[in-house]
Write a structure and sequence with these properties.
The chain has 24 helices and 2 strands. A two-stranded antiparallel sheet has the order 1-2. The protein has helices at residues 3-9, 12-29, 36-47, 52-77, 89-97, 101-134, 139-155, 161-175, 201-224, 241-244, 248-263, 269-283, 295-306, 308-311, 313-319, 325-336, 344-347, 352-373, 375-379, 386-405, 408-426, 432-454, 461-464, 466-500, and strands spanning 178-179, 186-187. The protein starts with a helix and ends with a helix.
């Protein structure tokens, strides 16, 4: 990195934003029921009015901190703070019951930092190379890539792909509100001129993620009849870094899994963590220790889920395609700042993109410092009563929505989408396909219509171009694979039942 990039990273404001984002991310991540997406969405309200670089540092800090924070309650109370830490409970909690909670937390911290650093370096070296390839991609291929991202996200709704498809279609329908991106004609305004600019993706995501989660947590707290959780004591760690480096093969393997999974649109930290855990157990010389309190069983998933953080930025920065819901929120934040991700960010010689990538390395180093110094504070965040925490989050969301355009219309949109998000969660409709569709909708439509204009309305242009055709085939395969897989499993299960009879 050049001196100019380093001088951009190491300003007092940027260092402060990194650490505020990290601190808030760890605290929110350590609270059961609140996700990393929730942490980033809440922090988004604080970046309104900031310059793009410090604002992105705060969001990236929340992202990285939230990934690590989920491991704290996963280890101490067998309840993952975020879905990404679900695999950590398998060995983290048994370690805590043995009186080794401090060792488990230290392993989670070091695994998170090492995985995050490897992922950040992968981003720094791979993203500029991918950007060179993206420059030769035309509208048909761009449409196919957007469609692939949507299908990948929908296919993860394994329990019910139909619900995932409904969620994505709802997001695409929301994108149609406002002016036509090609001809400028009005669509779905219903006589309301204030919707001519469409729904702002940032406001929608504030409602769907943050405010709807507050409603959900309030409902859950009312059902439990309490307003807070207890704190927990942490034993003094006895592990040292050199003790953890004995598992360097597990760390490297989990980091590679995290980078590959993170760079694939539609995946995320939870998938990477579980894959890393299963692979570590398969390759271990002592697989029987897994599930009974193995340090390696904590190190693998925590390295794997944090190795996603840098890799998810690769498709977002190079193609403007979010790999997961968190990147969709960050893409909305960049759009709000007037920055358009894509190959031009790299080819224009701008230091912005290199400052962001280099800043992610620094953020992971600060996480090691914060995790070491404030660990006892972090483990006691569950003592904060929900009747104090949740109203504060509501105030932040409303202030953030209003600040976007100083309009009460955005506050009304926030409340409306909070209700939409609450109902989606209530009826088991996944929110992530909706979010990805909300961000990719305009990009997908614009590139499809440009491709059709170039071909004078002939849709076969999507089939005649080999790269485009291959990506479309992959997209179709992703959609039908869960149904075929369930059908095959059902047949095997029926055959086994009949054989037993």
């Amino acid at each position: 990195m050049s001196f100019e990039v380093l001088s951009e990273i190491f300003t007092l404001q940027n260092i402060l934003m990194m650490n505020i984002g990290l601190f808030a991310g760890v605290i929110i991540g350590a609270m059961p029921g609140l996700s990393v997406s929730f942490a980033v969405t809440v922090l988004l309200t604080m970046t309104i009015g900031m310059n793009s670089i410090p604002g992105m540092y705060m969001l990236l800090g929340g992202y990285v901190g939230g990934m690590y924070g989920g491991s704290i309650t996963a280890i101490l109370i067998n309840t993952p703070g975020t879905p990404n830490a679900a695999a950590t409970t398998l060995d983290g909690y048994p370690l805590a019951k043995k009186g080794r909670a401090g060792d488990a937390l230290k392993a989670a911290l070091y695994g998170s930092v090492i995985g995050g650093l490897i992922s950040a370096f992968a981003l720094l070296f791979l993203a500029p190379q991918l950007a060179k390839l993206v420059e030769v991609i035309a509208s048909p291929e761009m449409f196919a890539i957007c469609l692939f991202g949507l299908c990948a996200t929908i296919s993860l709704s394994k329990d019910n792909v139909i619900k995932g498809l409904i969620s994505a279609l709802l997001g695409l329908m929301v994108c149609c509100v406002g002016l036509d991106p090609i001809f400028g004609t009005s669509r779905l305004l219903f006589g309301t001129r204030s919707l001519m600019a469409g729904f702002r993706s940032v406001t929608c995501m504030l409602g769907v993620y943050a405010l709807s989660q507050v409603l959900f947590e309030c409902n859950a707290a009312r059902a439990r009849g309490d307003n807070g959780n207890r704190g927990f004591e942490v034993s003094k760690p006895t592990l040292r870094l050199r003790d953890l480096l004995k598992y360097w093969k597990t760390i490297l393997r989990s980091s590679i899994i995290g980078v590959v999974v993170g760079a694939t649109p539609g995946t995320g930290g939870a998938i990477s963590a579980m894959m890393s855990y299963n692979e570590a157990r398969r390759a271990s010389k002592n697989p029987e220790k897994f599930g009974k309190g193995s340090i390696e069983g904590v190190l693998a998933p925590e390295t794997g889920n944090n190795a996603v953080t840098g890799a998810t930025l690769i498709p977002m920065l190079t193609m403007g395609i979010p790999g997961d819901a968190i990147m969709a929120i960050m893409l909305g934040a960049l759009t709000m700042q007037g920055i358009t991700p894509g190959a031009k960010l790299f080819s224009a010689g701008s230091i912005w993109v290199y400052a962001i990538m280099g800043g992610l390395i620094v953020i992971n180093i600060f996480m090691l410092i914060q995790g070491s110094v404030f660990i006892r504070l972090f483990v006691n965040v569950s003592r904060v009563p929900e009747n104090i925490l949740l109203p504060c989050i509501v105030v932040l969301c409303v202030m953030g929505a209003f600040a976007i355009s100083n309009s009460l219309i955005d506050v009304a949109v926030l409340i409306a989408f909070a209700l939409v998000g609450f109902l989606m969660k209530k009826f088991g409709i996944p929110v992530i396909p909706f979010t990805i569709a909300l961000v990719l909708g305009n990009l997908c439509e614009t590139n499809l219509r440009r491709a059709l204009m170039v071909s004078y309305g002939d849709p076969m242009i999507l089939v005649r171009r080999p790269i485009c055709f291959c990506i479309l085939l992959l997209s179709l395969a992703l959609l039908v694979y869960p149904s075929i897989s369930r059908f095959i499993k059902g047949r095997k299960s029926r055959a086994k039942t009949e054989a037993e009879k």
